[in-house]
Amino acid sequence: MSKVLFQHIYKQYAGEQRVAVKDFHLEIEDGEFLVLVGPSGCGKSTLLRMLAGLEDISEGNIIIGDRIVNYISSKDRNIAMVFQNYALYPHMTVYENIAFSLRLSKLPKAEIHERVNRAAKILDIESQLHKLPKQMSGGQRQRVALGRAIVREPEVFLLDEPLSNLDAKLRIQMREEIGKLYRRLRTTTVYVTHDQVEAMTMGTRIVAMKDGVIQQVAKPEEIYSRPANLFVAGFIGSPQMNFIEGKVRVRDGYSLFETRKHTLRISEDKSKMLRDNGSIDKPIILGIRSENLLYRNDDLAKPEQQMNVFEAVIEIKELLGADTYLYTNNKEQRIVVRVDPKTRFEEGERIVVGVDMNHALFFDKNSEALIC
Amino acid sequence: MEPNLVHIPKPKTGLRIRLLRIRWKKIDLFQVLAMIGLTLLALFMLLPIVFIINHAFKPISELFLYPPRFWSNQPTLFNFQQLILKSQTTVIPFSRYLFNSVLTTLVTVAGVIFVSSLAAYAFAKQRFIGRELFFSFTIIALMFAPETVAIPRYLVIANLGIMDTYLVHVLPLLAAPVGVFLMKQFMDQIPNELIEAAKIDGAKEWVVFFRIALPICMPAVATIGILAFQGSWAQTETSVLFTSTESMKTLPYYTMTLTNGLANNVVGQGVAAAAGLIMFAPNLVVFLLFQRRVLNTMAHSGIK
Ligand SMILES: Nc1ncnc2c1ncn2[C@@H]1O[C@H](COP(=O)(O)OP(=O)(O)O)[C@@H](O)[C@H]1O
Ligand SMILES: [Mg+2]
């Protein structure tokens, strides 16, 4: 178990114009489960591979524990890695796969035997130890790959999209198992995924990346409720956050968010922050998640709330069991609204949608950064 | 007890009949024809083998029968006796040629496998300057028949100062572009992650090679092993070109002299037949031992 420190890491592949990773600076706490998330091609694997010693570092230092590991080869970094395609040795049995690293480090046979069996027991593959990888299912192979990693008791675990080759059901199951494994071992873990659900459910901290640059580092709740910019806001959460373009105006002492057709009243504290930020009359993007949009049928009368409503036509209805999502059009753009699945809706129906302005987020349209 | 009015077949036979039927249903006319054709072809290809085996055991009277027969009516070990006797009268005993051949062939096979797979591993999985260039040299080398480079090869051997040693039977054969090419095709298919996983597991480069890359490529190893064996066991060139001392020459050379010099010698025919079988037998054994592996090479070269 160790801290990991990335100091202003840059990576440019030989012969490539683009920088794959740019000024990546981050400290990973001892025993943390850090998730690197971002769309594919954003440099997640590159980072992990630099940490593993499989790729040169163009600039900056990587420190594991108290060693700068830039020039230390993979085998001496005391890390373990799980690959997307498992990378099990096809000619070795499960037992030999798991024991491989221990045999190389010349441990006594009895201890190897004990450690392999312990790992197999934790992962529930004791009865499979004599099999070859090709005789196993995807989920089982993934367990073997995990077994191969944990048996070494490394300082850091690296996992590169370990679940993306599994089907949906197995993915959820293995997600839980990896979580359990982590809570049991408490080893520093860096987990790479392009799946924001995995990131949200597994990480103690999330690093959102785009084009090789860190966008935000935060706990799951925070990254969800206070995304640092438009990219993170749009990437985290499903369905995607609704973005509405407009301007903030001050009228009769109230701050209002105005689009071409609609007007929404901004809450007191947010309007103060917007004013302090100098965002009045500047192009602003309002972000609001579908669960903060409320279907109204009877309380249209209250004038105070009437301010924050708009009319919309249901275009598509998506039933997901526990929730129903309405893809509506408010004459300007598409807005996704979460509603109670017990209420019946028809496609083409007109509804009134209320906006919970306390949960609205305001982004600067030019810098795309969160204002408040 | 009511007698059974309807005949119910015993389940066991019924099952067997059904299995037979299912099996036959899957075979259509084309397959039947193809099977007959291939069987005939295989039998035809078998004839020389049958002949060579029987020939070695024929007494002299049968060796010269016209038309020649495949079967030997009175098999005898006379020819083998003669072979051993004859070589006792010459300076160099038969066993010396045999020893030379076995030794140099074993070393050549091991050497070709070692050199080719190491080169292939580097070409497939290492990044170094000139990788493409050197590999294209190898490909170009594929296009030269050995005869075309006999003279430069002679000069190389002569200048190395290894004329008349065992090395001349080994060294020229170690450069096996076919082996390198075949191995590289195989090594290319090993996923990089596998090698990276091994490195993270603590393997040095040579451990990765011997414990991961080579075992995965076993089918290719068997194939180039057979190729190297056949290239070495039956060849006479190195004995002819690079050795002058009789004790450094190999068995195929000796067999060749038997059939050449003693063409009209009656006993010589029998001796040649016996020597021919001794030359041929290892080919058969090696092939039978490795054939499954080789078929694997051809059938599925995928690894995942
Ligand atoms: N070996 C390589 N050579 C050149 N460019 C690469 C190499 N590996 C990755 N890249 C580039 O670096 C960027 C980041 O890739 P990667 O780290 O694999 O992304 P991710 O894992 O987030 O999908 C991509 O633009 C990719 O094309
Ligand atoms: Mg990746």
From TrEMBL, chain A:
GO biological process: one example: carbohydrate transport
Coiled-coil residue windows: none
SMART domains with a match to the protein in the record: AAA
Limits of the ABC transporter domain: 4-236
Record keywords, A-Z: ATP-binding, Nucleotide-binding, Transport
GO cellular component term, pick one: ATP-binding cassette (ABC) transporter complex, substrate-binding subunit-containing
Superkingdom in the source lineage: Bacteria
Matches recorded under InterPro entries: AAA+_ATPase (IPR003593), ABC_transporter-like_ATP-bd (IPR003439), ABC_transporter-like_CS (IPR017871), ABC_transpr_MalK-like (IPR015855), ABC_transpr_MalK/UgpC-like (IPR047641), Mo/tungstate-bd_C_term_dom (IPR008995), NA-bd_OB-fold (IPR012340), OB_MalK-like (IPR040582)
Record-linked Gene3D superfamilies: 2.40.50.100, Nucleic acid-binding proteins, P-loop containing nucleotide triphosphate hydrolases
Name listed for the protein in its UniProt record: ABC transporter ATP-binding protein
From TrEMBL, chain B:
Listed Gene3D superfamilies: MetI-like
CDD domains in alphabetical order: TM_PBP2
Keyword Transmembrane found: yes
Record keywords, A-Z: Cell membrane, Membrane, Transmembrane, Transmembrane helix, Transport
GO cellular component: plasma membrane
Pfam families: BPD_transp_1
UniProt keyword annotation of Cell membrane present: yes
Membrane spanning stretches: 29-53, 97-121, 133-154, 166-187, 208-229, 266-290
Biological process annotations from GO: transmembrane transport
Predominant location: membrane
Membrane topology per record: Multi-pass membrane protein
Family the UniProt entry places it in: Belongs to the binding-protein-dependent transport system permease family.
Name of the protein: Carbohydrate ABC transporter permease
Taxonomic source organism: Paenibacillus agaridevorans
